Amino acid sequence: MAKKDTSKSEIKKVVLAYSGGLDTSIILHWLKAEYGCEVITFTADIGQGEELEPAIARANELGASEIFAQDLKEDFVANYVFPMFRANTIYEGEYLLGTSIARPLIAKRLVEIAKETGADAISHGATGKGNDQVRFELGAYALSPDIKIIAPWRIWNLNSRVALEKYAKENGILLEQSNDAQAKPSNSESALSMDANLLHISYEGGILEDPWASPDESMWRWTVSPEAAPDKPEEIELEFQTGDLAKINGKAISPAEGLYQLNQLGGKHGIGRADILENRFVGMKSRGAYETPGGTILLKAHRAIESITLDREVAHTKDDLMPRYAKLIYNGYWFSPERMMLQTAIDESQKTVNGVVRLKLYKGNVIVLGRKSDSDSLYDPSVATFEDDQGIYTQADAEGFIKLNALRLRANKNLREN
After folding, report:
1. pTM given for the model
2. What is the structure's pLDDT at 258?
3. For domain 189-372, is the CATH number 2.40.37.20?
4. Of 96, 99, 89, 178, which Cα lies nearest the Cα of 133?
């Protein structure tokens, strides 16, 4: 369906995805000035480490007609992060999709608030060069096909940080920085674009635009360097129920609390840093650096418990489907029928993924020490043993198996030699 023109005269009320930072604060003011409309702000706490109160206060100061601020951490982890990790999802071999997976939830709430308040449109602060504009808008259109969307970065002429700061000063918008309670100070902060949630924190721009340049150590906010991590390793046990993390060291935890604890553990031991040059959906290559400490631990543990509970062909089929599933999330198709179809198959496979994994965390490494499942283990030591298997497995049967599988190889070789 073609996007309808968004005439300014039609727009009386807009719901803005609002972080409280400079960009979205300028957008709030700009929407009111350009459209003469009411602006409703929506701020979500998905674990970025910032309090909601400053964003609420700033939205109020800038004249938002209504303010929505919600703690969505449990929703985010339980209904977006965990389903993704059931598939062992990685984009292009390295990226754990921390930014990508947060966008569908925000798009969903924007559409819901627009319906609740009778708004004429939604708006976001994603630029016209990035993936997030696609993710927000594909998600919104999938849930509300006729929704009107205003993307200021594709309309206005404020196309640089200097232009934004000039606009802010001219219109009395304070140039204050957001306060990240979980973060440590970074000397590179002003030059970098950062995005955080409970799964990860990302860094783009500044020195990272040179793919040969190494990021400064002061950039990293959640993790110590592996060299500075404790010299003593730490062992932990993670318990899974139907593919999801349920307990840490025997203690039951909620999804959000579990991921938070893994972030603390991973950050302490220098786990989860990645420096990636990825292929954006819009066509360009982009360099990004990421910290995903808890997700890195979770992925390793999940694969370990699957190794003892999943049938071989089910596991291999999942691995075949994963790159397709990852691309759907990266490109913004979370609410697409094909993603939902794949999710149904993935979730079916997780019914038997129950058990405990023992891990060692040490200087940037996640090492599997053991895995067990009292109810769903497919590992049979009486068959796998190198000792006397008491006739359970007849080794002589392997000869016929090998010859049958070699038949086409032998035929191909004979044909080439004759």
Report:
1. 0.91
2. 98
3. no
4. 99
